[in-house]
Automatic annotation (TrEMBL), chain A:
One of its GO terms (biological process) is spore germination. InterPro entries: Cell_wall_hydrolase_SleB, Peptidoglycan-bd-like, PGBD-like_sf, PGBDSf, SleB_dom1, Spore_cortex_SleB. GO terms for molecular function: hydrolase activity. Residues 144-158 have a biased composition (Low complexity). The keyword Repeat does not apply. Gene3D superfamilies: 6.20.240.60, Cell wall hydrolase SleB, domain 1, PGBD-like superfamily/PGBD. This is Spore cortex-lytic enzyme.
UniProtKB/TrEMBL annotation, chain B:
Signal peptide: none annotated. This is Spore germination protein. InterPro entries: PepSY, YpeB_N, YpeB_PepSY1-2. Residues 27-162 form the Sporulation protein YpeB N-terminal domain. NCBIfam families: spore_YpeB (TIGR02889). Pfam families: PepSY, YPEB_N, YPEB_PepSY1-2. Residues 373-434 form the PepSY domain. Residues 180-369 form the Sporulation protein YpeB PepSY1 and PepSY2 domain. One of its GO terms (biological process) is spore germination.
Amino acid sequence: MRLKKTVILLFFALIFAIGISATNDIQPTEAFSNQVIQQGAVGDDVIELQSRLQYLGFYNGKIDGVFGWGTYWALRNFQYEFGLEIDGLAGTETKQKLVKASEYDKNYVNQQIKKGNEFTHYGGTPKEQQVKQGQKKGQEGTKKQQQGQGEGGKNQQQTKDTPAEPKAVNVPGGFSQNDIRLMANAVHGEARGESYEGKVAVAAVILNRVESPTFPNTVSGVIFEPRAFTAVADGQIWLTPNDSAEEAVLDALNGWDPTGEAIYYFNPNTATSDWIWSRPQIKQIGKHIFCM
Amino acid sequence: MIRWILVAVLAIGITATGLWGYQEHQEKNAILVQAENTYQRSFHDLSYHMDLLHDKIGTTLAMNTKERLSPQLADIWRLTSEAHNDVGQLPLALLPFNKTEEFLSNIGDFSYKTAIRDLEKDPLSDKEVESLQSLYKTSGDIKNELRKVQHLVLENNLRWMDVQLALATEDNQADNTIIDGFKTVEKTVEGYTEGNLGPSMTGTSSEKHEFKFLTGKKLNENQAMERARQLFDLDEQTEITLAKSGDGAEVDMYSASYHKDGRNGYMDFSMKGGHPLSLIINREVKDASKSLNEGMEIAQDYLERLELSNMEPFQSSQYNNVGVINFLYTQDEIRMYPDSVQVKVALDNGDILGFTSRDYFLNHQEREIAEPKMTEEEAKKMVNGNIDIQEARLSVIENDTGEEVLTYEFLGLLENETYRIFINAMTGSEEKVEKLKGTEEKFEQAV
């Protein structure tokens, strides 16, 4: 425990030190990493891409760090206007043109993202007019700012150096993060001790049931169907799921199904109903037998 | 003596009461959990239905042909009634939630009236389209608020039983997250005035058929072992567990698995021909050092090695440090939506972490594709005039009845939302309209 604390302290001290040394430099001018940015990507490069496209007026959506459809069309329009090959990919040539044509205020964008403010990055408009403080976090944000100034800008330096996290995530077709979380809860409750594929398998069964005409048509309907899952009946579903449960759910939503379209599964050691043994079995993964 | 008997009787009595009490307690808890589950189900169903409702109204706005519009409106009507039903199951009796319910029944009325009308003779008026637009906006707001409440509920393990208690005893009302959330939802709807009123994957249907296009010879167990080693790319030393599928499987297959250096591999491949159907490799993935674009190239090479050629990437997404890329088979530049393959790539070092090709091997064959009877320009005219078409191409999809049809595929924009529209290349009918999403705001920052 103590070791951890020391490490954390050291870490902060380091960041602080870097922060001080960085203040002497003028705003960094280097732009984009070497990657070709394509639809579906997330991260710093995408934030920069969106900011630059917005600076030129091509992108009107939120700068959230996820390359979605809005960014795709904006990029294509940019490529069209600047006489580049219209492929919706930000490759070397496109990035060069973009860097030449636009400005990117990295500190400004990163800070706004971290504070959770609603903001834009249009060229030719003063920055102050482009920030709308987040409704709930607004007060907190200003307080932090004041504090930061009071302490000689210590906080601000820290925020400058760590890159901002994207504000959005990719979600597989039509499913919300909440649906994913609910499924992860169910998978964790049902298959905590199973291997990874065993978890994907349980998630796949839930989805196969949603598709099946004999079961409810929603994820929540399937999960909360009375007597369908033991973890739901005994409340184990409310344990906090681990990352591997969530990853397994994402795999299942993206089309993985190690069960071969099963809609039932049971643990042969604890199964109490004879009926379940009469179902045509597909395979066994870990402790669970999967069947039609 | 009597004293001892008395003590014994009392002791038995106390133990019995204790046991009885414990049992009652257990039963009470079981019933509480069950009641809680019913509430949770209605609540999560409600958020999902509102989400779906919002999308459906969106697609309705993007549609053109009357034959598709009526069923769509009927679907909206059904969804409103489901959502209404969900609200009715929640213990909100003491909470003012009537505006939201009113909103739901307004959409219901509107969609019912328009769905049963002969839209051929009496199409939607401009005013009706306008009110549909405002319904779309309001339903979007409600959806967002509900999703936020849902996030809080899941994140903090909130119980509906507590809401019930809080509502019954007025004084704690102020600090109950769920109640607050629902009040915000209600406020959102207040902004909407009455004066305004006047899943499955892309291209595949849920219809199932057999694997009839698998080629190759049946593998015996030794050959299967060899094939597994080759597909996993493992040396002779690593132990592989092999199992045959049971009677319930749609296609006879082998399942192979291994465990080595913190990596778990699991794979299904068909007995006939040894075609890999699904592969999952699990290991810890470190910070991404490769881009999604590089990941896509790695995935493409991998498909080449599996002798799946003419695969074109059509969708890619990065989740944390892994990339998932969706490929479609193309024949003469025509996309075959039923023949899809997904590949998962670790973006830390470019390992293949997963592969699934059930759909591909279920549907794939060399097809005879007839010449389209319509030109692209003619097909374009069948698309709703409000949609700004950006891309067009030919593709084969499975329609609602599970038949493969040749279509013109259009990607278009309507008010910042992207839609994919499929127009039958023979008859010109609108086969499918989809609203494309794929990203969602993170709730941690939104709330």
